[in-house]
């Protein structure tokens, strides 16, 4: 999994785009902590980070570093 770019890097919102050369797909890492949710998710996206299908490919409660949760996608 290759890092592409950071979208957000705040204490309560971390988002970045990664690329998997083996399948030619981009993935959006998203961590959010607010009054409604505290979770980390990964979605398939385009090269700009736009998500068409919001079905998460990996998710977990609380903060999970990208290096750990992307292993679930990379398999």
Features:
75 residues; mainly beta; 5-stranded antiparallel sheet; 5 strands; globular
> What is the string of helix and strand elements?
EEEEEH
Main sheet makeup: 5 strands, antiparallel
Low-confidence stretches: none
Residue-averaged pLDDT, rounded? 93
Descriptive report:
- The chain has one domain.
- The chain has 1 helix and 5 strands.
- It has one helix at residues 66-74, and strands at residues 2-10, 13-20, 25-33, 38-45, 58-61.
- The chain has a 5-stranded antiparallel β-sheet with strand order 1-2-3-4-5, with helices on one face.
- A hairpin with a 4-residue loop joins β2 (13-20) and β3.
- The longest helix is centred in the last third of the chain and has 9 residues, at 66-74.
Gist of the model:
The protein is mainly beta. It has 1 helix and 5 strands.
Spell out the blueprint of helices and strands.
Elements: E1 2-10, E2 13-20, E3 25-33, E4 38-45, E5 58-61, H1 66-74
Antiparallel strand pairs: 1-2, 2-3, 3-4, 4-5
């Amino acid at each position: 999994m290759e890092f592409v770019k950071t979208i957000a890097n705040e204490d309560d919102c971390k988002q970045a785009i990664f690329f998997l050369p083996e399948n030619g797909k981009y993935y959006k890492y998203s961590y959010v902590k607010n009054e409604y949710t505290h979770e980390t998710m990964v979605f398939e996206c385009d090269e700009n980070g736009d998500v068409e299908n919001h079905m998460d490919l990996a998710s977990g409660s609380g903060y999970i570093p990208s290096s750990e949760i992307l292993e679930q996608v990379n398999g």
